[in-house]
Design a protein that fits this description.
about 60% strand; Lipocalin; mainly beta; disordered N terminus; 1 helix; single chain; twelve-stranded antiparallel β-barrel; about 5% helix; four-stranded antiparallel β-sheet
């Protein structure tokens, strides 16, 4: 990676000065700047506006056995296959600005458009019949996030650049609680067998705060990066926690905390283009609810999650001020989307 012939954008390419007095004199190449902006933080930058599009596919099938085993050989009851497939488009509008040499701030506003198809086997008591319903399609605001990054240590020949990050998630999106449900099938004694929500959620419904750190080290021609963060969600009271159309259960929700980390490597192929590969994982703690009827916190079994993703990305400088960023995410665990595709266009003013 020949940084001597680089053409950084306006406001970029600053020399890094270490606390010991050593300075990397050569300017940062444009492709390295793009990696910094996407995988770490690019400090001391002018205002950057970014539009993005993310598509995520989620498809899960669950075999449900309603009955009992007789003599460990004969199954008496009904078998139903439940399938929930979701296609989600997220349109993001973000802004980033270097406040000082070591401080940067950002804000992101997402618009969410989701289609979810629900299928249930055994409709009407027939094992061959399948009931299906699709919900969604509206574009609604998601949860807005805002944050700030502070450069704790600049990069030196023997030490990576380390930055601290803090952010807040604002519950501006549609919460998943209190959404009306449509009953599509009832069984004996008017028991609900198949029901779907009338609309799709676009946010968590609660405030959250995020604390983390990231690091980056250039090892010509590779760029190593890593990050780790903890997200804390605050409990909130909702008018209805139950997804049953026939009952109303007010109470409080605590989504639990989450731990995120990621590692990766990028290669600046030339002044304009870079390729990267990364691994990230999000570990969610169990959620709890406290119905008003009991006043006792109850752990929701199975609400914890482990979403691991393999990412393959690239950046390409379209002009002096605009860059194309692309990424393919491949889900490695059942809690992660099957795959996701992201495209971004950051523009530096």
């Amino acid at each position: 990676m020949n940084t001597q012939s680089a053409t950084p954008r306006s406001g970029g390419g600053e020399a890094l000065v270490s606390s010991e007095g050593s300075t990397r004199q050569e300017p940062t190449s444009r492709s390295v700047e793009d990696v910094l902006q996407q995988q770490h933080v690019l400090f001391n930058q002018p205002l950057t506006l970014e539009i993005g599009l993310n598509y995520a596919r989620y498809d899960r099938k669950q075999l449900t056995l309603n009955g009992f085993l007789a003599l460990d050989a004969i199954f008496l009851g009904s078998i139903a296959v439940e399938d929930v497939a979701s296609d989600t488009f997220t349109y993001t509008f973000a802004a980033r600005k270097g406040i000082t040499r070591d401080l940067s701030a950002s804000i992101e506003v997402p618009l969410v458009q989701r289609w979810t198809t629900y299928q249930k086997g055994g409709a009407g008591g027939s094992a061959a019949a399948v009931a299906e319903a699709s919900v969604g399609g509206d574009v609604v605001v998601g949860d807005v996030t805002a944050g700030a990054s502070y450069r704790l240590f600049p990069e030196t020949p023997t030490r990576p650049e380390i930055a601290l990050y803090t952010g807040v998630g604002i519950p501006t999106g549609q919460a998943p609680y209190g959404i009306p449900w449509n009953v599509l099938e009832r069984g004996n004694d008017n028991f609900i067998q198949f029901a779907v929500p009338t609309k799709q959620p676009s946010g968590q419904g609660v405030w959250s705060i995020n604390l983390g750190a990231s690091m980056l080290k250039t090892l010509d021609p590779a760029i190593l990066f890593a990050n780790a963060s903890v997200t804390h969600t605050f409990s909130k009271h909702f008018a209805d926690l139950d997804n049953s159309p026939d009952t109303v259960s007010p109470g409080s929700v605590d989504l639990g905390n989450a731990f995120n980390y990621g590692v990766g490597v990028a290669f600046a192929l030339n002044e304009r283009m870079s390729l990267s590969m990364s691994f990230s994982e999000r570990l969610n703690g169990s959620a709890r609810i406290r119905p008003d009827a009991t006043g006792v916190w109850e752990k929701i079994i199975g609400s914890d999650g482990n979403a691991a993703t393999l990412g393959i990305g690239m950046t390409y400088a379209l002009s002096e001020r605009m860059t194309f960023v692309g990424n393919l995410g491949i889900g490695l665990t059942p809690d992660a989307p099957d795959f996701s595709i992201t495209a971004k266009l950051p523009f530096t003013l």
